[in-house]
């Protein structure tokens, strides 16, 4: 059992996202607006 938990993670450390993914996330974050009314938050996507 100890051997299972002592193994290193198999994930690669040099992960690089595609340009399309970065562009999508940036555009999404620019379009997102959060409006707070009293104790509630409303998320609005302006697309």
Description:
With about 45 residues, the chain is of the alpha+beta class. About 40% of the residues lie in helices and about 25% in strands. The chain contains two helices and two strands; from the N terminus they run ααββ. It has helices at about 1-5, 20-30; strands at about 30-35, 40-45. The protein has a two-stranded antiparallel ribbon. A hairpin with a 2-residue loop joins strand 1 and strand 2. The longest helix has 13 residues, at about 20-30. It starts with a helix and ends with a strand.
* Average pLDDT reading: 84
Q: What share of residues are in beta strands?
A: 25-35%
Q: What letter string, H or E per element, gives the SSE order?
A: HHEE
Give the N-terminus to C-terminus distance in angstroms.
Answer: 51 Å
Rounded to an integer, what's the Rg over CA atoms? 20 Å
Order of adjacent strands in the largest pleated sheet: 1-2
Please report the number of helical segments: 2
Give the oligomer, counting copies of the same chain as homo and different chains as hetero. single chain
Largest sheet: 2 strands, antiparallel
Unreliable runs: none
Q: Can you tell me the overall shape?
A: elongated
Overall structural class, as computed from helix and strand content, comes to alpha+beta
**Percentage of residues in helical conformation:** 25-40%
- Strand tally is 2
